[in-house]
Design a protein that fits this description.
Layout lengths: L12 E3 L8 E5 L4 E7 L14 E8 L6 E8 L3 H11 L5 E7 L7 H16 L4 E3 L12 H8 L2 H10 L15 H9 L7 H6 L8 E4 L7 E4 L5 E3 L5 E2 L2 H8 L7 H4 E5 L2 E4 H9 L12 H4 L2
Parallel strand pairs: 5-7
Antiparallel strand pairs: 1-2, 2-3, 3-6, 4-5, 4-6, 8-9, 8-12, 9-10, 10-11, 12-13
Length: about 300
């Protein structure tokens, strides 16, 4: 029997306690992360060493078909202290995922703020998640190299969430959907725009370079004038981000909006972030100046 893991498998070291109220500790050496999974009733059992800066996700199951609720937060002054406050202040959650750096110098407040916003975005785009944050968390004051470093943390966090049964997959992600989930995908998470819309609005530009944000599947492409993606590796033009991402991943279904990134402010950010900013009506500082008369033609 062949039990060889897939090429994009992620090795994790998991320490499972005998007592269910104690935290399960997960180490990800690829991104130097350490994560704790703790039930609501076991938060007080967290050791004082968890009072370090990081982010957390509060989770609870909404139905038996994979739908779940989530709240994403940052804890610049200590994870244990912050999550302990939510034991009293928030009633709905039943389990928490805590994330910090497994290094001498952990996350600082700005890094935690950026990663908080990135994981919020990941869950907001999921077919399965209902995110309860009242405000959109974000922090774009990081240096470009820091954003690149933090982007590498997204894959292990998303896979641990799936391991826990809280699947952050999107409508074009790598899973088979039941009929009810397909219905949710067509309603709650349909954005109604594609690359052509972003090109016409000058949020993207013809010939602009795209890169894969998934280290296990490196790839490059460029945008065509009609919203296609030409892969650098084989010159083939694909009609969608997901199709191009799937080609890079050897035919696996792929959420192209989070797979591909574009250069902004000297760093690579997901195209889903560009889409989010466009939908929120934010000022596009990267668009070329277009004369008013020309813009109406």
């Amino acid at each position: 029997m062949d039990i060889s893991p897939p090429a994009d498998s992620l090795p994790l070291r998991v320490l499972v306690p005998e007592n269910g109220l104690e935290p399960t500790i997960i180490y990800d050496e690829s991104s130097a992360l350490v994560m704790a999974v703790i039930d609501r009733g076991g938060v007080r059992r967290l050791q004082a060493t968890w009072d370090v800066p990081g982010i957390y996700v509060l989770l609870h199951v909404l139905d038996g078909d994979g739908l779940f609720g989530a709240y994403v937060g940052k804890a610049p002054n200590g994870l244990k202290s912050r999550v302990s406050q939510h034991v009293v202040g928030k009633d709905s959650w039943c389990q928490a995922l805590l994330v910090c750096r497994d290094t001498t110098h952990g996350f600082n407040s700005t890094q935690a703020g950026w990663l908080e916003g990135r994981i919020y975005q990941l869950l907001k785009e999921s077919v399965n998640a209902q995110v309860s944050n009242q405000q959109i968390p974000t922090d774009d004051t990081l240096a470009p190299y820091e954003k690149t470093m933090l982007e590498s943390c997204v894959v292990p966090i998303s896979r641990v969430l799936r391991l826990l049964g809280f699947d952050p997959s999107t409508a074009d992600g790598n899973r088979e959907f039941t009929s009810s989930l397909r219905a949710k995908a067509k309603t709650a998470k349909y954005y109604g725009i594609d690359l052509k819309v972003l090109l016409r609005a000058n949020w993207l530009n013809e010939g602009e370079r795209l890169v894969s944000l998934v280290p296990a599947w490196p790839g490059e492409g460029e945008l065509t004038s009609n919203g296609g993606i030409r892969l650098v590796s084989n010159g083939t033009i694909y009609e969608s981000l997901s199709a191009a991402g799937g080609a890079v991943r050897g035919g696996l279904a792929t959420n192209g909006w989070s797979f591909w990134g574009v250069s902004r402010e000297d760093s690579w950010i997901p195209l889903s972030t560009i889409r989010e900013r466009y939908l929120d009506g934010q000022v596009n500082l990267n668009a070329p100046l277009v004369p008013e008369a020309a813009s109406r033609t």
